[in-house]
Write a structure and sequence with these properties.
- This protein is mainly alpha-helical.
- The protein folds into three domains: 110 residues, TolB, N-terminal domain (Rossmann fold), CATH 3.40.50; 117 residues, Tetratricopeptide repeat domain (Serine Threonine Protein Phosphatase 5, Tetratricopeptide repeat), CATH 1.25.40; 102 residues, no CATH class.
- Helices cover 64% and strands 7% of the residues.
- It is built from 21 helices and three strands.
- Strands 1-2-3 form a three-stranded antiparallel sheet.
- Strand 1 and strand 2 form a beta hairpin.
- Helix 10 runs antiparallel to helix 11, helix 11 runs antiparallel to helix 12 and helix 20 packs parallel to helix 21.
- The longest helix is centred in the C-terminal third of the chain and has 37 residues.
- The radius of gyration is 23 Å and the shape is globular.
- The two termini are 44 Å apart.
- The relative contact order is 0.07.
């Protein structure tokens, strides 16, 4: 439903990351609507029996809690995929949205006639939204089953591309293994549905992070936003995959703010807003953003890791150690090992200052790289660790490996903290040129 209604350009629809934070909680529609800063909330319940599904839906006005509209839908088990089509059309009509002919036709289009494929697709999306290694692997398996069951299901190919892209970003896959898979899936989705915002965004990310084709990436990002202006991830990818690498930081921050308007409670988006400020060199706003993201959910490990990197960059080492310690504990590391590592870092800072801190960081980074047998370990992390201790030759050696690996994060090389002492070296300018970034 979120995906379907998001394609209406005249109404702002909250993204799933924010909406799903209310799932399973005893929160009424008015309270959720106020938190999301929306005017209306579509609420409902689904019941299943041997003959099919019953869907009870209602549209509630947030200001006074009044019921604007309500309806019951009944579907057979073989017709379950029509739920979103009927609901979307009914809601758009009740909101009296003026749709152009092409928009009306797109809203009414049926994504698949295969009930089995549709239910597999919903399961795949569920696992992908967990944002965990096992969840992403399961989603890939399910998306592939969907495409085998219905080879013309465009959204399934777009979802498969998203899964490969996210797995690559989280270090689950080596880019040379997963990015071509993401590109093939996104391309297939666009053959089936040339106006798929999700597919254009997924393809754009491959073009920027793997092909280093920035003109092509920009074109795809803009198509994604045009066809689905409510798709928050398209704006996120555009900011981090094109605007920041191009050094257009003011525009990147503006695009991230638009993404957050669409998805205000998304932890990944709030996290990356902090990174966007950091990459722009505005560390005060970055710190504020990371603090507010921690308040949003103190149990989200990734925020603490990102916040730690920001604090390191401005020399607040004791705080950085504490944040990394929180992140590692939340990620499932042994409390004893985490405490021992934190104690080592605190000792070296107190006795040897920043220089010893970064030497200890290099030691642990190299150890992590050597032990990475079951997952991809970014050579870029090793490069920045060498750069931090002033070993330029080793830093460039590992930067070259990162470039050969097609590590997408190398596109941020001009903005990432840690490479400041390399930027006047001719080798840095040569690498920037080869990646395709502006000098």
């Amino acid at each position: 439903m979120i995906d379907k209604l998001s394609e209406i350009p005249t109404v702002r629809i909250m993204s799933r990351n924010s909406v799903f934070r209310f799932k399973g909680k005893e929160v009424d529609a008015q309270a959720a609507g106020r938190d999301l800063k929306v005017e209306e909330v579509l609420a409902g319940r689904i019941s299943r029996d041997s003959s099919g599904l019953t869907v009870n839906a209602e549209l509630i006005k947030v200001t006074d809690g009044s019921r604007i509209w309500g309806r019951q839908f009944r579907y057979s088990s073989s017709d379950v995929s029509r739920i979103q089509d009927d609901l979307a059309t009914s809601v758009a009509d009740k909101l009296q949205l003026r749709l152009k002919g092409s928009q009306e036709a797109r809203l009414a289009r049926h994504v698949t006639d295969n009930s089995e494929a549709y239910q597999l697709y919903l399961q795949a999306r569920y696992h992908l939204n967990q944002r965990t290694g096992p969840g992403i692997r399961k989603s890939i398996e399910l998306f592939q089953q969907v495409t085998e069951t219905d080879p013309n299901f465009a959204l399934a190919y777009a979802g498969l591309a998203d899964a490969y892209n996210l797995g690559t970003a989280l270090g689950m896959f080596a880019p040379r293994e997963s990015s071509p898979e993401a590109k093939a899936a996104a391309t297939k989705a666009l053959v089936l549905d040339p106006q798929s915002g999700e597919a254009h965004a997924a393809l754009a990310l491959v073009k920027s992070h793997y092909d280093y084709d920035f003109p092509g990436a920009q074109s795809e990002f803009l198509k994604a936003i045009k066809f689905n202006p409510n798709y928050a991830n398209a704006r996120l990818f555009y900011a981090g995959g094109y605007l920041t690498p191009m050094g257009r930081h003011t525009e990147a921050i503006a695009e991230m703010k638009k993404a957050l308007q669409l998805d205000p409670l998304s932890l990944p988006l709030n996290n990356l807003m902090g990174n966007t400020y950091m990459w722009a060199g505005d560390y005060n706003k970055a710190v504020q953003q990371f603090r507010s993201t921690v308040e949003l959910d103190p149990t989200f490990a990734m925020t603490h890791f990102f916040f730690s990197t920001c604090l390191e960059a401005i020399g607040r080492y004791e705080e950085a150690i504490a944040e990394r310690q929180k992140g590692e504990l939340l990620a499932g590391a042994s409390p004893e090992e985490v405490e021992a590592e934190a104690r080592e870092f605190r000792n070296v800072v107190q006795t040897g200052g920043p220089r010893k801190y970064w030497q200890k960081n290099l030691e642990l980074t190299l150890k992590g790289y050597a032990q990475a047998e079951t997952h991809y370990f970014s050579a870029l992390d090793v490069a920045v660790a060498f750069a931090r201790v002033g070993n330029k030759d080793k830093a460039f050696e590992w930067l070259e490996k990162s470039y050969v690996d097609r590590d997408g994060n190398i596109t941020l090389i001009k903005s990432l903290p840690g490479f400041e002492n390399l930027r006047n070296d001719p080798r840095f300018a040569n690498l920037v040129r080869r990646i395709g970034l502006p000098q």
